[in-house]
Structures are given as C-alpha cells and as structure tokens.
Amino acid sequence: MIYKFTHMQLKRFLFCLIIIPIYFVPAVQGQDKPNIIFIMADDLGWQDVGFMGSQWFETPNLDKLAKESLVFTNAYMYPTCSPSRAALLTGQQSFRTGIYNVPVLEKGDDKHNIFSRWTVSQDHPMYAEPLQEAGYRLIHIGKWHLVGPNPAEETNFPLKTPLKQPANGNLDWLAEHKTPELMAYYPTGRGFHENVGGTWWGDPARGYSEGYQSESGGYIAPFKNPFIEDKEEDEWLTDRLTDEAIGFIDRNKDEPFFVNLHYYAPHRPTVPRSEKWLEKYRNKYPDSITGQGAVNLEEIAGYATMIESIDDNVQRIIDYLKKEGLRENTLVIFTSDNGFNGLQSNTNTLRGAKGTVYEGGIRVPAFANWPGKIASGTSEVPICGMDYFPTFLELAGVTDYHGILDGKSLVPLLDRQELEPRALYWHIASTYKNPPCSIIRVEEWKLIQYLLDGEIELYNLDTDLKEENNLADENPELTAQLLAKLSSWRKENKVPIPPASQLPY
C-alpha cells in the first residue's frame, strides 16, 4: 500500500507511468557490463522534485526520466552527508567506519557521544576498487568529503572533542594533501582513475575567505577549488561538473565506464543560477500540499534555481548518451545524500529536515533508469544507500568480493522480483539535531531508541508519514519485538554506544 501522504503527492506525477513489459536482464556476460552513472545531489529533499510530488519545484527532465524508470518511494540515507557518503561508498554501517555525523556539527562531550572520524580508513574498501579490477574506467566528480582536513589528528580514538576544520579560504592543508600518503584517501587512491573536485570540503564556498557570504559561493566561476582546474569558459559549477562527466565518457566510451557524479548543489550557500529563474520562482503560487513557496521565499526561490540547473544538466548527459548510441547499455541512478536543509526548503508532509532522524532528514528521492532492461514504475520496498555497492558488484559480474557489506543487491527489485524481507538499521552515536540513537524500520513500522536514556518512539509510516503520533505505549508487544531486534543487532555486531548510556548494549 502506498502511504497516504505519498499517494496524494505522487499520483499527480506517477499515475501516467505505464508498466511496460520490459524485463531486466543482468548484463554480466563478456563485454556486456553496463556503463553506470551514479548521480547524487547534495541536500536535495525527498519532495524537492516533481516526480516525488512537488508542484512548485520545476524538474521536467528528471520527471520525464522518472516516468521511464523504477522510482523508489522509500529510499533512505543517513541524516547528514558524511555518514551517508561513507555508507554509500563502503557499503558499511556507520559503526564500522566510525562516521556518525559531520564532525564539525557534533555537540556535547565524550561521555554522552562517540565523536566521528572524518577520514574513511583504508581497511574499508570502496566500490570503485573491485569495479576497477572488473575492468571499469572510473571517475569521481564533485563532493567527496571522505577525507578529513588533517587525518593525522584522527588518532587516539575515541576522540575527546569533535574534529575541526580550517577557516574558509585557508589552503595551508593543500600541500600535504597532495602527498602520496594523503592522496591514498582521495578518489584516485580508492579505485577511481580520475578525480575532479573531490576533497575534504563539505560545500563549494570553502575556497573563498568570505565563505557563504561571498558572491560566488563557489558556484560561480572562479570556483577556487584546488581540485578543479580553472577554464576560461567556466561559468557555473554544476555545468562544469557535467562537462567533466561527458568528457570522461567520451574518452572512455569503448570500455565499461562508471561515473560517480556527486554534485555540490543544491547545498548551501544558496546562489541563484539566473535572475530570470529566480524571478519566476518568486512569482509562483505555493504548493497547496507541500507548502513549498509559502515561506522563506527568497531562499527557497534561489534554491529552486539550483535544482532546475541540476535538472538541465542531467538532461545534457542523457542527450549525449543518446547521440553516441550509449543509452541502451547505461544504467543511470539519481538520488540525494540526505534530506533538505531546513534553511533552504520545507514540506508539510514530513517531519524534520537534514540532520534529524525523522523522515525529512533521511528519506530521499531515487530512481534507476536503464532502457530496455528496467521496467518503469514504482517500488515501495525500503532501500538504503548501502544497497548500491552490492548492486554494482552484481551488475559488473563481480563474484569474488569478500569484504563486509551491510546492504543488499537491488538487482531483484530491478528485475521486478521480490527482495528478501529485512529490517533497515541506522546507528548515530553522536549529537547533532537529535541525541544519539539507533533506528530500525520493519515494513511500515519505524522505531527510534535514544541511547542515553533508552526513550522509545514508534511510528506507523503507512498511516502517519509525518511521525506525529508516538505509538510505543499503545503497542507494547510490537514495541518490545522491534526493540529486542534492534538491541540484538547492536549486541551481535558489537555496536559501540556512548559511555554515559544506560543501556547494556
């Protein structure tokens, strides 16, 4: 059953999806490995696109592509970018990598938190490594955020205080980062053949001493990113990153290629793409269901222009693939790393925003598109960012990978078969917008257990997508069952909890 709120928003855009009798055929034979383009926006909310129900944001190209795709209506990430990206690239839970939040956002002391690492250590392989061994040519483009500004400080765990970062405009770290020792933590040290724009930065404005207050914000050229070579024709960062994606494909189109295209947009600072687009959004009527466009108009209007720019650039990639005859053997996945930033966007249908453990923070838009291989439609099966690593391995025909993977391959869903029933888990051992907690989702039920005092919240997402009614007291047996399952998961996996926690595990 589609969620009550989801149905109201999605039916306007998804009722016209025609379930074409096209069947997914795993392309794992000989030279038939599929090309893969994995596009991830930064801080793009679940309903900040038309295909997930917004009538205010304009994403016509993504909407058209979604109608030809398998759309995942229950796709999840972590609440912030660092743990989401670590989980995505390694296929592993946060407690394995030690990354629970963006380090510089963490609050409190080391008794009530386990402060996060920033750098993903070498003992956690990333999906580019086995894919390179399988014969893929790989590039990472855009935000990386999986190496810290000073990895040498990431010792003596658990940390006493949260990690910090240099001031905006400070490049004192750069020379050391270009040494072989630290480049080992960059994309080219983790299986990618090329890297454009990826470093420790969480947003593109860090090259400017004024940061978010700069006119450019890192989006308008010059970008001042030391891992993006300036070009005379540069104008807009999202355009330039797309140029790099198309250029890489053009150079490697005779081999299987993998493009890890992680746009910095629409992460703050909000920089309007054009005055014409900005004026258009200023004058739009608000969405009567989501409430988008009703408040904070100047900010959300600028944010909308950044999303429309992503929409245009995704279409540029699709047009190039068609022109070069590459479309039929290329899988395109589109998603986001977490929910929307509450300073930029809003929705009336979800609780919370980026940084929170509620649906507004962790639920993201997602679809998979592969003409002739994946039938169009929707899947309500909950999936998570850790599922992509094993999916890529199966599609590439890699059968000898023996690393730890906490996700499951989505190939059965792409083939319109059932995915083996499972629970989804999150573990966040530090404080940002919520106290440390663990989460379990089983079918329509979501249980949150706070680690310091053991408090419980239980929500039925089928009937209460906005998580307004805590049903823990009304459903003691179900609460006990889910809690036992969550506690067992922590115990079996030796999941660390803050020292001040009242829980045994």
Automatic annotation (TrEMBL):
<dbReference type="InterPro" id="IPR017850">
    <property type="entry name" value="Alkaline_phosphatase_core_sf"/>
</dbReference>
<dbReference type="InterPro" id="IPR050738">
    <property type="entry name" value="Sulfatase"/>
</dbReference>
<dbReference type="GO" id="GO:0004065">
    <property type="term" value="F:arylsulfatase activity"/>
</dbReference>
<dbReference type="Pfam" id="PF00884">
    <property type="entry name" value="Sulfatase"/>
</dbReference>
<dbReference type="InterPro" id="IPR024607">
    <property type="entry name" value="Sulfatase_CS"/>
</dbReference>
<keyword id="KW-0479">Metal-binding</keyword>
<dbReference type="GO" id="GO:0046872">
    <property type="term" value="F:metal ion binding"/>
</dbReference>
<comment type="similarity">
    <text>Belongs to the sulfatase family.</text>
</comment>
<keyword id="KW-0106">Calcium</keyword>
<feature type="domain" description="Sulfatase N-terminal">
    <location>
        <begin position="34"/>
        <end position="398"/>
    </location>
</feature>
<dbReference type="InterPro" id="IPR000917">
    <property type="entry name" value="Sulfatase_N"/>
</dbReference>
<keyword id="KW-0378">Hydrolase</keyword>
<protein>
    <submittedName>
        <fullName>Aryl-sulfate sulfohydrolase</fullName>
    </submittedName>
</protein>
<keyword id="KW-0732">Signal</keyword>
